[in-house]
Each structure stands twice: as structure tokens, then as C-alpha cells.
Amino acid sequence: MTLTKANIIDSVRRQLDLPRSKSIQVVESLLEIIKRTLASGEDVLISGFGKFCVKDKGERRGRNPQTGGNMMMRSRRVVTFKWSGVLRDKMNGHEG
């Protein structure tokens, strides 16, 4: 099952015993801070979880899957995620 924003809001509501409207505000504010930081080109580090990194990808040659013809793909920025050692250990059953 995929964890959705609605699931996160509900978990925050239950764990912090907050009204639903306040839980929505907390989650939306957190996500907005993360989006704004990444959009400005800065990385986001969450200790014990991981790091969202902004990477610049240069222009490259690609292929149009419909026509099979070559095309140039423009440069762009992407977000990558590097998980922390703590999360890696938890994912692999090495609680510690």
C-alpha cells in the first residue's frame, strides 16, 4: 500500500491528538517548506531519514519512442534521494 498525503495527515492527527484542520496545516506547511527549499536549489537533510538533493542534468541526445527519431533533450533539474544509514538499517531489519 502506498502512503498518501491523506494517510500522513491522519497519522499526524492521531499521534499528536490535533484537530484534522490543524493536522492538514502542519503537513501542508512542512511540504511547502521542502518544495520551496528544493526549488531554490538547496538540498533538504532530515537526520535519521535522508537527504533530498537537487542535481543539474545537462542537455543530452534522446530518442522519440513514437517515431524512433533522435532528438535533443534540454537540460533540467531533478531531485534525488539518498537515505540515511539509520533508515537503511531499519529497512534491512538491523534495528539498532
Describe what this molecule looks like in 3D.
The protein is α+β, with helices and mostly antiparallel strands and 96 residues long. It has two domains: 1-40; 41-96, IHF-like DNA-binding proteins (HU Protein, Chain A), CATH 4.10.520. It has helices at 5-16, 20-39, 85-91; strands at residues 44-46, 50-57, 60-63, 70-73, 76-83. It is elongated and about 55 Å long.
Task: Describe the structure in brief.
The protein has 96 residues and is of the alpha+beta class.
Seen as an oligomer or otherwise, the chain set is single chain
- The total number of structural domains is 2
CATH-defined fold name of the largest domain: HU Protein, Chain A
The residue ranges in which pLDDT falls below 50 over 5 or more consecutive positions are none
CATH class of the largest domain: Few Secondary Structures
Work out the helicity level. Answer: 40-55%
- The H-and-E topology, N to C, reads as HHEEEEEH
Strand neighbour order, sheet with most strands: 1-2-5
What is the CATH architecture descriptor of the largest domain? Irregular
Topology diagram in text:
Blueprint lengths: L4 H12 L3 H20 L4 E3 L3 E8 L2 E4 L6 E4 L2 E8 L1 H7 L5
Antiparallel strand pairs: 1-2, 2-5, 3-4
Which descriptors apply to this entry?
96 residues, alpha+beta, HU Protein, Chain A, three-stranded antiparallel beta sheet, two-stranded antiparallel ribbon, 3 helices, 5 strands, 41% helix
